[in-house]
């Protein structure tokens, strides 16, 4: 994995790109849209394929989050992490949309006790 940021530096939550399925800590999948995973060859696609049918069905049952809004899922096996926070991002965005999107993921991490 290529971790971009740890939140905070000594935290157990990682925010990464790359091989997110190998992480052992709860993680934010930036750009992961749980409802478009089959259509887009992105982090979501890798996550769904790795998780198998049960995880895919769990994701498909979630309400569709708006762009920049996070949704958390319990990961469990075969993932090493206990849960994943999915953050769908638009292909083009302005600075305020991107900031809002990242803040949404960080707030959800805090709310779930991942950040501190």
UniProtKB/TrEMBL annotation:
InterPro entries: Macro_dom-like. It comes from the Eukaryota. This is Uncharacterized protein.
């Amino acid at each position: 994995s290529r971790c971009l940021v740890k939140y905070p530096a000594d935290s157990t939550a990682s925010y990464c790109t790359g091989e997110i399925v190998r992480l052992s800590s709860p993680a934010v999948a930036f750009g992961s849209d749980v409802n478009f995973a089959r259509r887009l060859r992105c982090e979501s696609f890798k996550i769904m394929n790795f998780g198998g049918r049960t995880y895919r069905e769990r994701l498909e049952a979630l309400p569709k989050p708006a762009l920049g809004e996070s949704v958390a899922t319990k990961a469990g096996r075969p993932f090493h992490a206990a849960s994943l926070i999915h953050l769908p991002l638009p292909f083009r965005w302005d600075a305020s949309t991107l900031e809002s999107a990242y803040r949404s993921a960080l707030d959800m991490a805090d709310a779930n006790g991942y950040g501190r």
